[in-house]
């Protein structure tokens, strides 16, 4: 299989542009073995960026992730997220400690504010910076921040240390291409594209199916290849099915032609004006 392309973070660390999501994992004990196996398969295939959150199954997904990375922590770029209501200065520190315990590790590589809440951003950033100095996180970032939120963040003391913004981005949700994506690209802040296959909903699109057939590929692979075409974009598909994880990993081998990219633009038009950032 072709090597997975990489994206450079502002702190100089290079991460795979294709990682692993974990939302909905850890909900049912009976599914745990296949979830762990799926994540391990992804790690074996080089999808070594693993995205989780304290929210997912209220810590259950972090426990699954912890099992999957056991014995191979150094191979993994581990990302977790803090609930907005835990994002006071001390709250961030306490939430991080709980996440580390569930993940059975001593550090996260990237810690994100899951979405913006009531706590002033200055406080959250101060907590993140304290965690960074203590070596408990390698870098911090945000999630679900639109352009105005990002502009406000970068004006704050240490705000420029923001290492990523994780947002909804896929063929059917292209609003960020109008402003947020180019703004982040200019500043070298990667976008982590969540729900990169729109939780499966776009896979029945006839044009996507037509293009996929022409490459002897699947619609999911074309949807992921579309994202991998973009500079500074990291896609984090979730699958609890090892065969689908393999299928998703193989999307890096697809090289979409200009003609097919134009056809995708016709089927999923890029934005012509500002669209407020959508959330799932
Ligand atoms: P995805 O777009 O990754 O889709 C996941 C769904 O698609 C699952 O039902 C999965 O089923 C199915 N699927 C995966 N691969 C394939 C395939 N090749 N063919 C057909 N179906 C497939 O949605 P998510 O919302 O899970 O987003 C990905 C990750 O992004 C999350 O898991 C989470 O880590 C993160 N996220 C972050 C958010 C935030 O606010 N920051 C919000 C939402 C997600 P199955 O498992 O059975 O294969």
Automatic annotation (TrEMBL):
GO molecular function, one term: oxidoreductase activity
Residues of the NADP-dependent oxidoreductase domain: 18-266
Residues annotated as binding substrate: 114
Coiled-coil blocks: none
Region feature (Disordered): 256-280
Signal peptide, first to last residue: none
A Pfam family: Aldo_ket_red
Domain of life: Bacteria
Site keyed Lowers pKa of active site Tyr: positions: 81
PANTHER family cross-referenced by the UniProt entry: ALDEHYDE REDUCTASE (PTHR43638:SF3), OXIDOREDUCTASE, ALDO/KETO REDUCTASE FAMILY PROTEIN (PTHR43638)
Protein name per UniProt: Aldo/keto reductase
Organism: Neorhizobium lilium
Lineage, highest ranks first: Bacteria, Pseudomonadati, Pseudomonadota, Alphaproteobacteria, Hyphomicrobiales
């Amino acid at each position: 299989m072709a090597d997975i392309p990489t994206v450079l973070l502002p702190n100089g660390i290079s991460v795979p542009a294709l990682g692993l999501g974990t939302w909905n994992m850890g909900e049912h004990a009976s599914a745990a073995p296949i979830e762990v196996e799926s994540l391990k398969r992804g790690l074996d295939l080089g999808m070594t960026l693993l995205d989780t959150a304290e929210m997912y199954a209220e810590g259950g997904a972090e426990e699954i992730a912890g099992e999957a990375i056991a014995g191979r922590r150094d191979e993994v770029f581990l990302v977790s997220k803090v609930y907005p209501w835990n994002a006071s200065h001390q709250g961030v520190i306490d939430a991080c400690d709980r996440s580390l315990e569930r993940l059975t590790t001593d550090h996260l590589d990237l810690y994100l504010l899951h979405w913006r809440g009531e706590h002033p951003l200055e406080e959250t950033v101060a907590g993140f910076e304290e965690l960074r100095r203590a070596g408990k996180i390698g870098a911090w970032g945000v999630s679900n921040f639109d352009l105005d939120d990002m502009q406000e963040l970068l004006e704050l003391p240490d705000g420029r240390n923001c290492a990523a913004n994780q947002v909804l981005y896929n063929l059917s949700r292209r609003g960020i291409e109008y402003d947020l994506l180019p703004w982040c690209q200019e500043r070298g802040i990667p976008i982590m594209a969540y729900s990169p296959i729109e939780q499966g909903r776009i896979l029945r699109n006839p044009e996507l199916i037509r293009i996929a057939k022409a490459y002897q590929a699947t619609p999911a692979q074309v949807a992921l290849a579309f994202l991998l075409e973009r500079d500074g974009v990291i896609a984090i598909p979730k699958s609890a099915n090892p065969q689908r994880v393999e299928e998703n990993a193989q999307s890096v081998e697809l090289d979409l032609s200009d003609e097919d990219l134009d056809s995708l633009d016709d089927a999923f038009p890029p934005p012509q004006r500002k669209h407020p950032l959508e959330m799932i």
